[in-house]
Design goal:
single chain; 180 residues
Amino acid sequence: MRRILLVSFAVLVLLTVASAGIAWHLLNDQDFLKARLGAVVLNQTGRDLAVDGPLQLDLGRQTTIEARGIRFQNADWADAEDMVSLGYLRVVVDLPSLFGDIPVIPSLTVEDCDIRLARNEAGVANWDVLPETAHEPADQPESRIGPPAALLDSNLRNCRLIHNAPERTHPLTLDLDELS
């Protein structure tokens, strides 16, 4: 009996170590992370997300995601190929705060961004990408009013936002050199 327990324990330890090793390898495999991220975004939005440069994930209490060359596909009817392109993104998320009321983002850095918002003749906006949700039952309390997240420190450099809609004679353009 003792031998069976000892062998079972050894197998359990071996499986745990092997699983941890595989997980560690996959979390450090940029191609795997990019493919999974792209698949999740495509599944949720119906549009492609590409990360052309390096992608790093540093897990911890404050998890850091750092990427270069991010592109999010625009709506089929829009003129520009990409709705959003980011040259560099670094976001730090306080993981324990995800289990509280308001997620905390201690740091956000975005560089060389180009955001193109548009609305077509039918009134459809290119930023409306998430699937529609069923209406909440009437007995549900009203949703909380306030910020969706607490952003403690942000840095935006060399960013451009363009909004175009049929009612505009010229697109509204906002060029930002630096905002901290």
